[in-house]
């Protein structure tokens, strides 16, 4: 077995057109049927179980052209290999942006970001790729090009492959082209760094935010370990000895300043909390650190959990007791955690994660190990119990990739 993050081969493919890629996949399907792993910036290759055999990396980095950009329609169509950072630069020239915080945007390709459904702190206010992909093209396991959606926001014809391929992790095919909705660039951005000394105040604070007169686009909760990580990455002198709530606001300068003032007044009446507004470069540095928090680091195990927002306080407390560095997108119920580097055994890691997975699955949520030592993966349950929709997903996989060529075993070990 080979670790996906270590794939290096002289036979890797780097097609320059979608037609060339389709021909290569068709030839492989009709002959060797070697495993194929689509990739862009290679920021997510560590995810999932190792792929068996001698896989070929299918790089889309040469597919990086702008196909169409009718900026007045607030849409853009690009090839899947374009770097997210480059896409944002092109949009900024027209006063526009894609309001999704993609980790390692200088490396990540837009196709890879969509395939992994990458998103960061502002998903609370703006949503995820599922809300912005309105057209998509891809190559299936038999070398057939298929497309869905279109280049206008109101296009609703055909099957919703836009949502199906978003988060598909390369299992269904190689994305070659996407059309995205975009938004105007905002005038002002500001963060509030709120320290909460009493853990029992977390749930009342989150409840109060549900009734707030303000409309934050970021609502991130960190324990002291997570807060220290974010503060250190941002290289700022901020308190991180207790729980921290990061609230982000965007819009005109007047409305942002009003919301920051109001939310501070609302939280001041709850208990022992203190807040510090961050503007300009400081706000950008924290925003960037919150975005990159989920990326695999030197920690032995990282995970992502999806739970109900009402479960966040319970999950947060249990993870904090286990000395896990935690960041919760509290309004969405998405949690990112890194186990301490003192965890040196996969069985210990499993013992720590099992109670957290139990909390998540109790309400049909999930806990997914997003990164671990390659030698640990065979001893780790990366994805947890099989959901009721698993057979449906298996059927879709067989329809688009009947020979199981794309990423075999990455998500499907012992579940076929």
Characterization of the model:
The protein has 416 residues and is an alpha+beta fold. It has 3 domains: 1-185 and 386-416, Uridine Diphospho-n-acetylenolpyruvylglucosamine Reductase, domain 3 (2-Layer Sandwich); 188-292, 2-Layer Sandwich (Alpha-Beta Plaits), CATH 3.30.70.2190; 301-379, Alpha-Beta Plaits (2-Layer Sandwich), CATH 3.30.70.2740. Helices cover 30% and strands 22% of the residues. The chain has helices at residues 18-30, 84-92, 110-115, 123-126, 161-165, 202-210, 224-234, 253-268, 280-292, 312-321, 346-361, 390-400, and strands at 36-39, 56-59, 66-68, 75-79, 96-97, 133-139, 145-149, 174-181, 183-184, 188-196, 218-222, 243-251, 273-279, 301-306, 325-329, 334-338, 366-372. The strands form 4 sheets. It has an 8-stranded antiparallel β-sheet, sandwiched between helices. The protein has a 5-stranded antiparallel β-sheet with strand order 3-4-8-6-7. Helix 7 (224-234) crosses helix 9 (280-292) and helix 10 runs antiparallel to helix 11 (346-361). The protein starts with 17 loop residues before the first helix and ends in a 16-residue tail after the last helix.
């Amino acid at each position: 077995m080979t670790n996906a993050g270590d794939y290096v081969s002289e036979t890797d493919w780097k097609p320059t057109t979608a037609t060339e890629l389709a021909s290569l996949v068709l030839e492989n399907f009709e002959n060797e049927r070697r495993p194929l792993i689509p990739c862009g910036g290679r920021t997510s290759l560590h995810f999932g179980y190792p792929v068996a055999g001698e896989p070929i990396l299918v790089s889309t980095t040469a597919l990086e052209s702008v196909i169409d950009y009718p900026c007045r329609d607030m849409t853009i169509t690009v090839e899947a290999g374009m770097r997210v950072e480059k896409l944002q630069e092109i949009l900024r020239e027209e006063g526009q942006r894609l309001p999704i915080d993609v980790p390692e945007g200088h490396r990540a390709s837009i196709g890879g970001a969509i395939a992994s459904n990458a998103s960061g702190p502002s998903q609370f206010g703006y949503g995820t790729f599922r809300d912005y992909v309105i057209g998509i093209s891809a190559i299936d396991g038999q070398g057939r090009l298929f497309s869905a959606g279109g280049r206008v926001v109101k296009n609703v014809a055909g099957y919703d492959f836009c949502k199906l391929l978003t988060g598909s992790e390369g299992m269904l095919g190689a994305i070659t082209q996407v059309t995205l909705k975009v938004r105007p660039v905002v005038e002002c951005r500001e963060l509030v760094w709120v320290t909460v000394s009493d853990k029992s105040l977390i749930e009342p604070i989150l409840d109060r935010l549900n009734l707030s007169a303000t409309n934050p686009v970021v609502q991130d909760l960190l324990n002291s370990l997570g807060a220290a990580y974010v503060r250190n990455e941002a290289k700022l002198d901020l308190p991180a000895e207790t729980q921290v709530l990061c609230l982000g606001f965007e819009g005109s300068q007047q409305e942002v300043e009003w919301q920051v003032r109001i939310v501070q007044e609302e939280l001041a009446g709850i208990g022992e909390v203190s807040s510090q507004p961050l503007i300009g470069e400081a706000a950008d540095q924290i925003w960037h650190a919150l975005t990159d928090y989920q990326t695999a680091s030197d920690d032995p195990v990282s995970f992502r959990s999806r739970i109900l927002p009402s479960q966040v306080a319970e999950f947060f407390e249990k993870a904090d007791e286990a000395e896990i560095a935690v960041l919760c997108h509290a309004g969405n119920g998405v949690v990112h955690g890194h186990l301490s580097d003192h965890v040196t055994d996969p069985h210990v890691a499993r013992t720590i994660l099992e109670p957290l997975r139990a909390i998540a699955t109790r309400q049909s949520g999930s806990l997914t190990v997003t990164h671990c030592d390659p030698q640990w993966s065979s001893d780790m349950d990366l994805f947890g119990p099989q959901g009721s929709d698993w057979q449906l997903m298996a059927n879709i996989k067989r329809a688009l990739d009947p020979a199981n060529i794309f990423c075999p075993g990455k998500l499907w070990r012992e579940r076929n």
